[in-house]
Amino acid sequence: MNFIDILQRTWNRFAGFFQRVWARIQGILGADAEAEIARINEEESRREQEINARHVALAKQRELERQRQRSEIEQERAGIEEQLNQMQNEERRHRDAARRADLAATQRELETARQEWLDALAEARRRREEGPSGQLPPMRRPGELPDLDSVLETARQKVDI
C-alpha cells in the first residue's frame, strides 16, 4: 500500500466520521439520522472498496511488469548462453581441426623418417654385401694382432709432419 492510498483511506474515514456526526446533529433537529448514517456508511464502504480495487490492480500491474522483465531477462540469458555454447563449440572444432592437422603432419614426417631409415638400412646392406671382395675381412685371433709398439710407431709417423 502506498502513501496516497493511506491518505485516501484516512480522508474517506475522516469525511465519513464528520458526515455521520452532522447526520446525528440533524437527527436531533428532527431529520431521519439512521437512514442518512446508513447511506454515509455505504458510501464510505464503496470508496474503501474502490481504493482497495485500485491498489490490487496496481499491484497486479506491477507484478505483471516484473514477470515480463524476468521473462525478458531469462530470454536474454538463454540467448547469451546459446551464443556462448556456440562459441565454445566453434573453438573446440578449431582446436580439434588444428590437432588433427598437427597429427597428420607428424604422421607424414614420421613416415618420411621411417622411409629414410629403411632406405639407409638397405643402402648399408647393399654396401656391406658389395664390400671390397663381397665379404667381410676375417677376424684376427689374439696371436695374429700386431704388437703395440708397431701400432704406436705407425701412429707417430702419421701424426709427425
How would you characterize the overall build of this protein?
The protein is mainly α and 161 residues long. It has one domain. The chain is built from 3 helices and no strands. α1 (3-28) runs antiparallel to α2 (33-130). The radius of gyration is 55 Å and the shape is rod-shaped. The N and C termini lie far apart (117 Å). The model has no long low-confidence stretch (mean pLDDT 85).
Kindly report how far apart the N and C termini lie: 117 Å
Number of extended strands: 0
Q: What is the SS-derived class?
A: mainly alpha
| Spatial shape | rod-shaped
Helix content: over 70%
Assembly category: single chain
What's the short story on this structure?
The chain is an all-alpha fold and 161 residues long. It has helices at residues 3-28, 33-130, 148-159.
List keywords for this structure.
single chain; 161 residues; mainly alpha; 3 helices; 84% helix; rod-shaped
List the helices and strands and how they pair.
Blueprint: H1 3-28, H2 33-130, H3 148-159
Helix pairs in contact: 1-2
